[in-house]
Design brief:
With 134 residues, this protein is mostly helical. It has one domain. Helices cover 73% and strands 0% of the residues. It has 7 helices and no strands.
């Protein structure tokens, strides 16, 4: 029982990283990135300009991370670089855009940020293109 509860087999660890990558990457792409890309013209003038580069360019940077980098994360290619971009986006969302919101209002930002930081530290795992390109 102790072995079952406290040991981690390499397969389980790598499969868990795959599930984490795929789950958070796909949801970032479908729920956040794709809608912004599809409604770019409506959002371009009103998107928060926390980077001080203009609303349009801030939106482009956000879409780059939420669409392109999330897809890279799903397939496990250039994972740490993609995760760095996603961590920056979620840090801006959590610490700047939603700074005055109650914690319950920025819970999703914190969950994404936590998952992306975890994957950044662990790497994408065996079931990724990064691992197969070594």
């Amino acid at each position: 029982m102790k072995k079952f509860l406290f040991s981690v087999k390499p397969f389980a660890l790598d499969f868990g990283l795959l599930i984490l990558r795929a789950g958070f990457g796909i949801s970032m792409f479908l729920i956040h990135g794709l809608p912004k890309l599809m409604h770019f013209s409506q959002k371009a003038s009103t998107f928060p300009d926390v980077l001080r580069i203009g609303s349009k360019y801030s939106l482009i940077a956000d879409i780059f991370a939420e669409v392109f980098c999330s897809l890279l994360l799903v397939i496990g290619l250039a994972s740490r670089l993609a995760l760095f971009c996603l961590i920056v986006v979620m840090s801006v969302a959590f610490f700047m855009i939603h700074k005055n919101d109650p914690l319950a209002g920025k819970e999703l930002d914190l969950l994404y940020l936590t998952a992306f930081c975890t994957l950044f530290l662990t790497g994408p795992g065996k079931y990724s293109l990064d691992a197969n390109l070594k």
